[in-house]
TrEMBL record:
Annotated Gene3D superfamilies: 3.40.1190.20
Keyword Kinase applies: yes
Protein name, UniProt field: 1-phosphofructokinase
GO cellular component: cytosol
Family, per entry: Belongs to the carbohydrate kinase PfkB family.
Pfam families in the record: PfkB
Carbohydrate kinase PfkB domain sequence ranges: 16-290
Organism this protein belongs to: Streptomyces griseofuscus
Keyword Lipid biosynthesis: no
Source superkingdom: Bacteria
Chain's gene name: pfkB
Length: 315
């Protein structure tokens, strides 16, 4: 069973548009409304695979009620933390050529009682969990050290932690030794304070995060595949993608695939790659089902292509 923690969830509206012309009326050719937030997407992908998951998230106002309703309709157990503020609503504009423009609202500010209730809810749901996946940005009211506190408490309870966040929250949590962290190339570059131009640069940066405390690093490199770096070695994986429809939630689907497959080793990396490749070919933030996966198309190797340039170098 996988528990997900999404401190700043959202109600996501995705519009498919031929192109985005600033200052003009843009007519959408398709639209979707989904419960959003990185941890929420992980739960959605886990549920789509037929596995049990519990989503812990603060919810408030009409958007929060709708998020809970949409998750329940997908067979996801929701452990809501009532908050006085209103759950944020985000908008994504997906162009026909695969370019995505996102407008993310800040979300509510959590008060002291709400912060404590959130931690208590995570602790209560952790019993019997195989993994706790802590994902996304922290809302106003939660200090950068909040994830670090959660990692420490989870380890005391004997539960493994997967962490997908960035900036000061990631750096603060590393000292508590999360079992796996999942940055993308930009977040990886930010964490080590230098640009990444090649897969070898990403590997070195992942090693640096491990030296700071991460047990393993699962790095999403966009069109250039994924990289897994652990104490046992490093592996590189990729899969062909016919056309990118939307990359919203693709990294979250990858993390779900990794955890579903045990959260360790090349087999888990292969599952992560299969889930990520399937997700980018689906509309909006739709999570892939087993029928959407093409595991035979995935390649994983310990011969990491160190000199391969990144298609989108991380500054």
């Amino acid at each position: 069973m996988i528990v997900t923690v999404t401190p700043n969830p959202s109600l996501d509206r995705t519009y498919e548009v031929p192109s985005l012309d600033r200052g003009e009326v843009v007519r959408a050719t398709g639209e979707r409304m989904d419960p959003g937030g990185k941890g929420v997407n992980v739960s959605r992908a886990v549920a789509a695979a037929g596995r049990r998951t519990v989503a812990v998230l603060p919810l408030g106002g009409a958007p929060g009620a709708l998020v809970a309703e949409l998750l329940a309709a997908q067979g996801i157990e929701v452990a809501p933390v009532p908050v006085a503020g209103t759950t944020r609503s985000n908008i994504a504009l997906a162009e026909a050529d695969g370019v995505l423009t996102k407008v993310n609202a800040p979300g509510p500010e959590l008060g002291p009682e709400e912060r404590e209730l959130l931690l208590q809810t995570v602790r209560r749901q952790a019993h019997g969990a195989d993994w706790i996946a802590c994902c996304g940005s922290l809302p106003r009211g939660l200090a950068p050290s909040w994830y670090a506190d959660l990692v420490a408490r989870a380890h005391v309870a004997g539960v493994r932690i997967a962490l997908d966040t960035s900036g000061p929250a990631l750096l603060a949590a590393l000292r508590e030794g999360p079992d796996v962290v999942k940055p993308n190339a930009e977040e990886l570059a930010e964490a080590v304070g230098r640009p990444l131009a090649t897969v070898g640069d990403a590997l070195k940066a992942a090693d640096d995060l491990r030296s700071l405390g991460a047990g393993a690093v699962l790095a999403s490199l966009g069109a250039d595949g994924q990289l897994l770096v652990t104490g046992a070695g490093a592996w590189y994986g990729g899969a062909p993608v016919a056309a990118v429809r939307s990359n919203v939630g693709a990294g979250d689907a990858s993390l779900a695939g990794f955890l579903i497959a045990g959260g360790a080793g090349p087999e888990a990396l292969a599952s992560a790659v299969a889930h990520g490749a399937a997700a980018v070919q689906l509309p909006g933030s739709v999570m892939p089902t087993p029928a959407d996966l093409s595991p035979a198309a995935v390649t994983v190797t310990a011969d990491v292509p160190l000199d391969r340039p990144l298609t989108d170098p991380a500054p």
